[in-house]
Amino acid sequence: MRASALLHAADLTFAYDATRPVLAGVSLDVPPGGIVGILGPNGSGKTTLLGLLGGTRRPTSGTITLDGRPLASFSRRALATRIAVVPQETHLAFEYTVLEMVLMGRHPHLGLFEVEGPADVATARDALAAVNAAHLEDRDFMTLSGGEKQRVVIAAALAQATDVLLLDEPTSSLDLGAQLDIAHLLGRLNAERGVTIVVSTHDLGLASGICRDLVLLRHGRVVAAGPTATVLSGANVRALYDVDADVHLHASTGHLVVVPLHRTP
Amino acid sequence: MTPPVRLRLRTVLPLFAAVAVAAVLLAPTVGSTPISLVRAFDRAIPWAENVDAQIFFVARLPRVLAAALVGASLAASGVVLQALLRNPLATPFTLGVSSGAALGAMLVIAAGLDMGALGVSSVPLASFAGSIVATAIVYWLARSQRRGLSTNVLLLAGVTLNSFFSALILFVQYLADFTQAFRTVRWLMGDLDVGGYGAIVAALPLVVLSFAAFAVLARSLNLLSLGADAAAARGVDVVRAERLAFLSASLATGAAVSLAGPIGFIGIVVPHLVRLLVGADHRVVLPASACFGAAFLIGCDLVSRTALAPLELPVGIVTAMIGGPFFLWQLVRHS
């Protein structure tokens, strides 16, 4: 265990059914201020791992600590002031406005009968401005485009004022422009606000573009983990996805570019 | 900068409360003998000589207060269950509570055990017991799932229990003699003529208890409508909130149905109208729906006792006449 880790997971196992664990022996460290990407094919356990890290699910075995303290010892509310989660997609049963949606992020900071005050509204507006969605404030959330929704949900997570942000495939249903917006946004939030980010994704561009560390997950096990520059290699892409790929260094951005060639025979 | 919810709590709620209070005060003045509200509240006139006050307080107010209590309970329970099931088309009767209550009432009426003591008759007691049994069955089924309450199991168990109890109700009616069978049918149509304050006083603590739970839950209900995981990630103890929501809504519904029979459509019409007027925040929708539900049922009951006077229409039929077409319009609007 690295002493400096903000979020530390050791030997996590999660199973609905003991014969087919979803995760087995997964360990990872998230340094404070880091951006860690979790890559893996569908069904590799990425979403489950994020659920465990966010404390909304309990591991079957293994431990997770936040600042060295077991996650299980935090109350639901206390944990929600430290870790925010952005799910893959958000559907609302009722017609909330964007501002109402973002203000829901203030929930763990409010007392039982406390109503959001001007300071909470200021926090929510600041979060909306940070994701370039201030102009959407009065819109009905369900009428937004996919990219706008994702930005608003990220704003709600920011309004939660946590030091860790977990995102589950935040760009998976977005077009190229919106994908780029989210990637820039996450990089900026990390750089300007010091938000520690853990993001699961299929988007290798996002992974190489903003993630400093990667964890490669397959069949619920860690295939490789470490700094992006060393982990994102042709051999690892092949081991992860059964796809032969060329990995180049892109001259002007300095990021690795993965060009998939064909399915491994 | 005033936060929107504070603004609405300050401006909208007093309006809804005023509508409810106005309905309670004005409805008793309407009837076969017109009375004056001023005279009814005139303390200078001795009670024995004040016919207006006697009609107001003895003959008509209990019925109006029963309508207010039942309307508020059904509307607020509807709001809570819609949030719990994440489905704006759920009603307080979706989860089997009312059919349990109805079966309890049917059994007592058909067995000829209908009797009263201390102003509380055995029919509402049996009906309340039935609602508790139905709630316990649905809760137990949904609880045995892996994680907390499964809303899918809640829904399936509730709907199935509704059908099952309805079949038992038909069976009991089939076995009952003609008079009793007619009384059971009349009970199912809803009746707010509670005869005095006794039944209202008996139901009130249950309703107050449920409403206290609703008040505690209000903000969590907003978050639950994002889904269980998203609510948990924002600090809601989802398992506890869902259990409290189900049990408190069932308690309020059981109390309301025991008092006046299963009066339909209040629990869906009122929350929908209120959401159109005040938005989706449950901290506003819940109290506004309770007030508006009270006023709405008082209004429907007024129609039921005046439209074909001296004949009295069953109030459940009046709410269905208004609620049925409205519900269908909502379905079309949502699709």
The CATH topology annotation of chain B reads as: ABC transporter involved in vitamin B12 uptake, BtuC
Q: Give the averaged pLDDT of chain B, no decimals.
A: 88
Taking the sheet with the most strands of chain A, its summary is: 6 strands, mixed
- How would a textbook summarize the main sheet of chain B? 2 strands, antiparallel
The secondary-structure element order of chain B is HHHHEEHHHHHHHHH
Tell me how many strands of chain B there are.
2
CATH architecture of chain B: Orthogonal Bundle
Question: Which terms would index this structure?
Answer:
heterodimer, A: 265 residues, alpha/beta, Rossmann fold, six-stranded mixed β-sheet, four-stranded antiparallel β-sheet, 9 helices, 12 strands, B: 335 residues, mainly alpha, ABC transporter involved in vitamin B12 uptake, BtuC, 13 helices, 1% strand
Describe this protein's structure:
The complex is a heterodimer of chains A (265) and B (335). With 265 residues, chain A is an alpha/beta fold. Chain A has a domain of 157 residues: P-loop containing nucleotide triphosphate hydrolases (Rossmann fold), CATH 3.40.50. In chain A, 31% of the residues lie in helices and 27% in strands. Chain A contains 9 helices and 12 strands. A 6-stranded mixed beta sheet of chain A has the order 6-7-8-3-9-10, sandwiched between helices. Chain A has a 4-stranded antiparallel beta sheet with strand order 2-1-4-5. Chain A is globular. The model of chain A has no long low-confidence stretch (mean pLDDT 91). In chain B, 74% of the residues lie in helices and 1% in strands. In chain B, strand 1 and strand 2 form a beta hairpin. In chain B, helix 3 packs across helix 11, helix 5 runs antiparallel to helix 6 and helix 8 packs antiparallel against helix 10. Chain B has a single domain, classed as ABC transporter involved in vitamin B12 uptake, BtuC, CATH 1.10.3470.10. The mean pLDDT of chain B is 88. By secondary structure, chain B is an all-alpha fold. Chain B has a two-stranded antiparallel sheet with strand order 1-2.
